[in-house]
């Protein structure tokens, strides 16, 4: 039951027919866990607390660094050195005292993942590394929890909903993680400060839709947003047949991959038998490439008829993730051999 002060606080939201009193009460009884209180976690936490989510858990063992402040707008200069999870709890308490917040200033690990997630209805992944993303996904699959996912890279962000109403999970898009030492991070490549705010608000929106049971979610879809050229694309995700896995076991690879050495050998021995396709954006290709033709991922399905049927297609991108998506997109349309360049062109 909503109190009088809550009715006034959420009045602009309650008057929406899709939300109403019923939707607001669903928000009040919802329990949401956010993994990561950094660039993505900050806007997610602020908007969900402001929206009236009744219980929020925050998992993050990191401390605030001054280099975080251009994008992690929940913190200020006086917070440098403090634990993000603890600071976030304090600040969100000032934003909305009706939201009960639990801080977990610990690393999310296989040893504590299920215990932390078990008491929540919905999990949101705002982490910044592949190891945690796979652990979050596999834990949600094991516990049958819906997962809202977001990620950022330079000027581009991804948003999706996984493991919701028997929909696909993260491994249906990215079956295996690249080696940790071969994946660039924000410290190495940079990130536009406002980008996590854009992606984080989309993530919060998906969470609200799931909780209230309204609208259409991004389950079975991956949305990409490029802030540099204002392009937005939505790719369909298919649930793959794969081995049952838990957070501690590996899953079988769903794609053919080539190493850079294998690609070099093919280009030397039989260059006429293969077609290298770079699926990065045009500006990325122009900045640096290893040859081949450039077909941005969002144009691939529309240009599928241009692809040669008598050659092996080898897709490449920055890290090897978009090239895997390229094969998945073309699977229903292309019957020839397809490969992804492992770990990308970096």
Which descriptors would you attach to this protein?
346 residues, alpha/beta, Rossmann fold, Oxidized Rhodanese, domain 1, eight-stranded mixed β-sheet, 33% helix
Describe the 3D structure.
With 346 residues, the protein is an alpha/beta fold. It has helices at 4-9, 11-14, 20-29, 41-51, 84-95, 113-117, 130-143, 170-173, 186-189, 195-212, 260-269, 282-287, 321-330, and strands spanning 31-35, 55-59, 100-104, 122-125, 147-153, 156-162, 221-226, 231-236, 257-258, 274-278, 293-294, 312-316, 338-341. The protein folds into two domains: 4-236, Rossmann fold, CATH 3.40.50.720; 257-341, 3-Layer(aba) Sandwich (Oxidized Rhodanese, domain 1), CATH 3.40.250. It is elongated and about 75 Å long. The relative contact order is 0.11. The N and C termini lie far apart (54 Å). The strands form two sheets. It has an eight-stranded mixed beta sheet with strand order 3-2-1-4-5-6-7-8, with helices on both faces. It has a five-stranded parallel beta sheet with strand order 9-13-12-10-11. It has 13 helices and 13 strands. The model is unreliable at 243-254 (pLDDT under 50). Helix content is 33%, strand content 18%.
SSE map:
Layout: H1 4-9, H2 11-14, H3 20-29, E1 31-35, H4 41-51, E2 55-59, H5 84-95, E3 100-104, H6 113-117, E4 122-125, H7 130-143, E5 147-153, E6 156-162, H8 170-173, H9 186-189, H10 195-212, E7 221-226, E8 231-236, E9 257-258, H11 260-269, E10 274-278, H12 282-287, E11 293-294, E12 312-316, H13 321-330, E13 338-341
Parallel strand pairs: 1-2, 1-4, 2-3, 4-5, 9-13, 10-11, 10-12, 12-13
Antiparallel strand pairs: 5-6, 6-7, 7-8
């Amino acid at each position: 039951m909503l109190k009088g002060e809550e009715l006034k606080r959420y009045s602009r939201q309650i008057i929406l027919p899709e939300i109403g009193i019923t939707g607001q009460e669903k928000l009040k009884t919802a329990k949401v866990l956010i993994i990561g209180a950094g660039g993505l976690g900050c806007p997610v936490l602020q908007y969900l607390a402001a929206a009236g989510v009744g219980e929020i858990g925050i998992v993050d063992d990191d401390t605030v660094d001054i280099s975080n402040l251009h994008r992690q707008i929940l913190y200020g200069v006086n917070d440098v050195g403090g634990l993000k999870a603890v600071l976030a709890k304090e600040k969100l308490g000032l934003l909305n005292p009706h939201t009960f917040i639990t801080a977990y200033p610990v690393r999310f690990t296989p040893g504590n993942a299920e215990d932390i997630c078990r008491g929540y209805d919905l999990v949101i992944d705002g982490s910044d590394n592949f190891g945690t993303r796979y652990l979050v996904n596999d834990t949600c699959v094991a516990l049958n929890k819906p997962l809202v996912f977001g990620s950022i890279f330079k000027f581009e962000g991804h948003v999706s909903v996984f493991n919701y109403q028997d929909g696909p999970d993260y491994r249906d898009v990215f079956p295996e993680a690249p080696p940790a030492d071969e994946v660039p991070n924000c410290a190495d490549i940079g990130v536009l400060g406002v980008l996590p705010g854009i992606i984080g608000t989309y993530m919060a929106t998906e969470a609200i839709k799931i909780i209230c049971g309204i609208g259409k979610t991004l389950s079975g879809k991956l949305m990409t947003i490029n802030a540099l050229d204002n392009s937005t694309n939505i790719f369909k995700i298919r649930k793959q047949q794969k081995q049952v896995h838990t957070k501690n076991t590996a899953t079988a690879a769903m794609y053919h991959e080539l190493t850079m050495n294998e690609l070099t050998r093919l280009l030397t021995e039989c260059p006429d038998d293969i077609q290298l396709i770079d699926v990065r954006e045009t500006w990325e290709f122009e900045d640096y490439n290893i040859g081949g033709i450039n077909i941005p991922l969002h144009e691939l399905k529309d240009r599928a008829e241009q692809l040669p049927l008598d050659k092996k297609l080898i897709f490449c991108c920055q890290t090897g993730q978009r090239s895997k998506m390229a094969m998945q997109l073309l699977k229903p349309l292309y019957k020839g051999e397809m490969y992804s360049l492992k770990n990308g062109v970096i």
